Amino acid sequence: MFAFFVTQKSFWKSKKEIINLKIMRAVILFFLMAFLAIQNIFYAQVTTSEIDSIIKHTFKEEEPGGVFLVAKDGKINYRKAFGIANLELDVMMQPEFIFEIGSMTKQFTAVGIALLEEQGKLHFEDEIVKYIPDYPTHGHKITIHHLLTHTSGIKDFTKIKAINDIAEKELSPVELIQFFKDEPMDFKSGEKYKYCNSGYVMLGYIIEVVSGQSYAEFIQENIFKPLDMSSSSYASHNKITKKRVSGYHFKGAFVNNKYISFSLPYASGSILSTVDDLLKWQMALETNTLVKQKTKDKIFKNYMLNNGEKIGYGYGWHITKIEEAISYEHGGSIFGFKSMAVYLPKEKIYVVGLSNCDCHSPTSIVKNIAALYVKE
Predict the structure, then answer these.
(1) What is the rounded CA–CA span in Å between residue 72 and residue 373?
(2) Strand order in the sheet with 233-234
(3) Region of 142 on the Ramachandran plot (φ > 0 left; ψ -120 to 50 alpha; else beta)
(4) Residue 175 DSSP class
(5) Coil, strand or helix at 219
(6) In the predicted model, what is the mean pLDDT of the chain?
(7) Confidence of residue 34 (pLDDT cuts 50, 70, 90)
(8) CA 298 from chain center: how many Å?
(9) Which of 132, 218, 351, 374 is most buried, by CB atoms within 10 Å?
(10) Of 335, 359, 311, which Cα lies nearest the Cα of 152?
(11) Within 13 Å of residue 77, how many CA atoms lie on the same side as its CB?
(12) pLDDT score, position 376
């Protein structure tokens, strides 16, 4: 009898403890959810307000504009358009509009090379004469790696005075390489870092030699199509591209951008895209959809010169810091347009801005927005 009483008492005590524990857990969960909800609401309001103020300082309602997007963990936190897409028709900017992205094209060229490397069709350490046999290397060993990292020593063709003579001509990649190949080297390969569009022109041509496709076809079939980047393409003045914005310069007043043949920027700067497609691109890289982790580690490595000095550049991306956070970033500038994108791999923050006037650079804006998220 006594044993039964003790057992029954213990049973009710145990049951009471279980009930109290459940109540305690429910209360904790309630307050935690309430705290997170309040925090998220406050965070979203503050961030949106601060981002608006940063952008509106540069992008005015009655001027050529831009589009900005911020994503965390692949989810869009901010996406807005500012200003005017076409001054002559008075068309307001929309978030889905298409821009020339200039040198952000280099990311796609670098990954194109990486895809071919994964397929065993080339190697980063291959010498360029393997694919361009008649290129004068002046006794230097110039590799694909040197082209990717801007350490080749080859002169940037955009710095050659005679470039104005060919600016409007339709040139094949071979003809464009012919334009600069006899220029003296700036330095011995691997000894210095110097940003060089010529190197990425040569990489585009190497893609064509190895793949048997044009650069435009290769990028379309191996990157844009698999990632459903339906608003991205290799630029053309002849093809009708719906939702493409007009580009502008400012020379005391806004004027239409100068004409340039897209065969000149080629694989170093001739891609059209949108902020939405560029987010798809970044997430594909983050999730190893296109290239393996081992390859991605090579793409986003901060490489060194022959003397061991780091250059702050990988394969198609600058490797730097924002508020002590590692940042993978690149901008673009082409007549009438500027672009900038930053990815913080640890924080998983992506910020991209596209502008349709080369008078309005999104570079500092994008970096300042990224810094807001790091601080928060």
Answers:
(1) 9
(2) 99-100, 271-273, 233-234
(3) beta
(4) H
(5) helix
(6) 91
(7) very low
(8) 16
(9) 351
(10) 311
(11) 26
(12) 74
pTM of the model: 0.88
Which helix or strand (DSSP H or E) is residue 70 part of?
strand 66-72
**What is the C-alpha separation between 185 and 135, in angstroms, rounded?**
12
Q: From the centroid of its chain, how far is CA 118? A: 21
3-class DSSP assignment, residue 171 = coil
Instruction: Tokens for 34, please give them.
Output: 């309430």
- Residues with Cβ < 8 Å from 115, sequence gap 6 or more? 222, 290, 291
Sequence-distant (6+) residues with CB within 8 A of 198 are: 152, 154, 155, 156, 157, 177, 180, 268
Distance CA(188)–CA(183), nearest Å, equals: 14
| Amino acid (1-letter code) at residue 311 | I
The Cα 93–Cα 16 span in angstroms is 63
Instruction: Name the 3-class secondary structure at 238.
Output: coil
CA distances to 99, 219, 248, 361 from 357, rounded to whole Å, are 10, 26, 5, 8
The single-letter code of the amino acid at 345 is P
306: which residues sit within 8 A by CB, 6+ positions away? 190, 191
Query: In a 3-state reduction of DSSP, which class is residue 322?
Result: strand
* pLDDT tens-place string over residues 126-142: 999 999 999 999 999 99
Beta strands per DSSP E along 172-264: 233-234, 248-250, 254-256
Cα angle 363-365-369, degrees, rounded to a multiple of 5? 120
Q: How many whole angstroms separate alpha carbon 289 and alpha carbon 133?
A: 34
- The amino acid present at 351, given as its one-letter code, is V
Tokens of 182: 């006899």
- Amino acid sitting at position 40: N
- Name the token pair of 160: 């050659």
Q: How far apart are the first and last CA of the chain?
A: 64
Joined tokens for residue 269: 């700067």
32 pLDDT band, cuts 50/70/90, is very low
| Residue 225 phi, psi (nearest 5) | -65, -50
